[in-house]
Amino acid sequence: MPGLIRGVARTAAIAGTATAVSNRVSRRQAGRWAAQEQQQYAQEPPPQQYAPPPPPPAQTGMDDKLAQLKELGELKTAGVLSDLEFEQQKARILAG
User: Fold this and answer.
1) Which of the two residues, 32 and 51, has the higher pLDDT score?
2) 59-78 per-position pLDDT tens digit
3) Greatest CA span in the chain, whole angstroms?
4) DSSP code per residue over 17-61
């Protein structure tokens, strides 16, 4: 019986030592990782600040639209623009 108790005590001591060592290694490694993360966080550049988008362009007056349409008509008459291109550009001018 004394040999059995001695074997159980020895196993318990070894297991306890192994657990303590494992816990200590885990804590040390966690501390290292935390330090590395903190260092990386300190080295990261601050997030970029984006400028607000520019305001939408001011609405062109009716006179400007008429001048653009006249110029567009002249380009069509001169043969520079096809009928389809003329209609597309005219729609763009009138929409904008």
Assistant:
1) 32
2) 557 788 888 889 989 988 98
3) 117
4) HHHHHHHHHHHHHHHHHHHHHHHHHHHSPPPPPPPPPPPPPPPPP
Listed in sequence order, the residues at least 6 apart from 81 whose beta carbon sits closer than 8 Å to its beta carbon are 72, 75, 89
Residue carrying the six token digits 């966690």: 30
- Residue/partner pairs of 51-56 with CB below 8 Å, 24 or more apart: none
Report the pLDDT averaged over residues 86-94.
89
Residue 87 has φ and ψ, to the nearest 5°, of -65, -40
pTM over 0.90? The answer is no
Cα separations (Å) of 37 from 28, 45, 48?
14, 14, 21
Q: Specify the amino acid at residue 77.
A: T
15: enclosing H helix or E strand: helix 2-43
**CB 93 within 8 Å of CB 57:** no
